[in-house]
Amino acid sequence: MKKYLIAGLAVVVLAVLVFASMSRETPPDYIEMEVRGLRFDAFGQSPVIVLADKDQKKALPIWIGIPEAGAIERELNQVTPPRPMTHDLLHSVLTQVQAKVKEIRILDLKDHTYFAKVLLTVNKELLEIDARPSDAIIIAMKSKSPIFVSAKILNDQGISVTRKTDF
Q: Is residue 151 a part of any domain in this protein?
């Protein structure tokens, strides 16, 4: 009888441990984000692109240059310039050589500078190209590709959004 009691207790403990580990999800390494908008930092005299997670709970502001802000603004407003700009040229080249933008990743922050990669598929081969986040975001917007941010960066640098009007 004691043997069955111990075996039964062991099964219950094992079941509890299994269910506890199943309910505890490990956060993914990257969070999918979308462009929420552009703002202007009057204090720093610099444009800021705001990315937000799909649930609109966290936002990530990234300070960018004026030319890149112009390109992002054109994409947001679906404005086509009379002649191709640099990002338009790059998008055309990628299309002509049949390279597909799989996704972009903002993966690191060092000395107040974000680092990104553009992931391309060319002839079934995956290439990772180093890029500035602003350029990578514009390329993602042009190619309708997903934007991912490292979960660590979002946890460390992200801002909690309490209302839709926060950004």
A: yes
